[in-house]
From TrEMBL:
Record key words, sorted: Kinase, Transferase
Catalytic activity, EC: 2.7.1.49
UniProt entry tagged with the keyword Kinase: yes
Start and end residues of each Pyridoxamine kinase/Phosphomethylpyrimidine kinase domain: 16-246
Protein name as catalogued: hydroxymethylpyrimidine kinase
Record's keyword annotation contains tRNA processing: no
Family matches, as Pfam families: Phos_pyr_kin
Domain of life: Bacteria
GO molecular function, one term: kinase activity
Classification via SUPFAM superfamilies: Ribokinase-like
Origin species: Mesorhizobium argentiipisi
Length: 259
């Protein structure tokens, strides 16, 4: 078979042996929306749910080769990027995106694990901002990632987060979803900022529990909805709903007497 015509999302990211985050989460999420996944692995990590004990980077040429082969083999309708490890991998991924400008690309700018292990080398921030960001349909930073990307302190409130977000948009990014999930308060509010449009606030009740890999899930779900030709705002709303429902399921499971 020359080309698999099922709609696919190409996932570019790292493996997580615990299954809590990374490409395992991406594949589960995309599959739950009814699409298939093809892969370009950027790193192999050794993790439990508490810590990352080893990271093995994949050579940039091998990452680009995986992407090109996945694109040749399948009908790829969106690209989702997560852990990219090094500046050279970021540049290699950007080169393949430049060859495929019509495929919407979603970037979850994974900088570190929740346990604090660095997953993108600090020298790669420049390449991420200048080479990759302008090629993306959407980037999904949390408040810590937003501060790192803009070289600022952690945003103190919504207005501050918006100011930082606008600086990134001015650098050529098309749209930005600022995730407020790790902030405090009874609601979890994200802000969608697109060039030339008013910010859209998307909020959900904050749930008591926590779960790993929510960033991976959200960006993968948005990419899968974009692959289905949903407009950006609808894709983001649907993606948020999917993550909320999964969190709800997990918190109910944790709270159940036989959990
Ligand atoms: N490991 C990999 C390979 C990831 O891609 C990510 C996040 O995208 C993480 C770890 C971090 O996940 P968490 O913040 O849930 O620890």
């Amino acid at each position: 078979m020359a080309l698999n015509r099922d709609p696919h999302v190409l996932v570019v990211g790292g493996s997580d042996s615990s299954g809590g985050a990374g490409i395992a989460r991406d594949i589960e999420t995309i599959s739950s929306i009814g699409l298939r996944t093809c892969l370009a692995v950027t790193a192999v990590t050794v993790q439990t749910h508490q810590s990352v004990t080893a990271v093995h980077h994949i050579q940039p040429g091998l990452v680009a080769d995986q992407m090109r082969a996945a694109l040749r083999a399948n009908k790829v309708l969106a690209i989702k990027m997560g852990m990219l490890s090094t500046a050279h991998v970021v540049e290699a991924v950007a080169a393949v995106l430049r060859e495929n400008p019509r495929i919407p690309a979603v970037l979850d700018p994974v900088l570190a694990s929740s346990s604090g292990r660095q997953l993108l080398e600090p020298e790669a921030l420049g390449a991420l901002k200048h080479d990759l960001m302008p090629l993306c349909r959407l980037m999904t930073p949390n408040l810590v990632e937003l501060a790192m990307l803009t070289g600022s302190d952690l945003a103190s409130d919504d207005d501050d987060a918006l100011r930082q977000g606008r600086r990134l948009l001015a650098g050529g990014l098309q749209a930005l979803l600022i995730k407020g999930g790790h902030a405090v308060g009874p609601r979890s509010t994200d802000i969608l900022l697109s060039g030339g449009q008013e910010p859209v606030r998307l909020d959900m009740p904050r749930l008591a529990g926590s779960m790993r890999g929510t960033g991976c899930m959200l960006a993968s779900a948005i990419a899968a909805y974009l692959a289905g030709a949903k407009p950006l705002e609808d894709s983001v709303r649907e993606g948020k709903r999917l993550v909320f429902e999964e969190l709800l399921r997990c918190t109910q499971h944790e709270a159940s007497p036989d959990a």
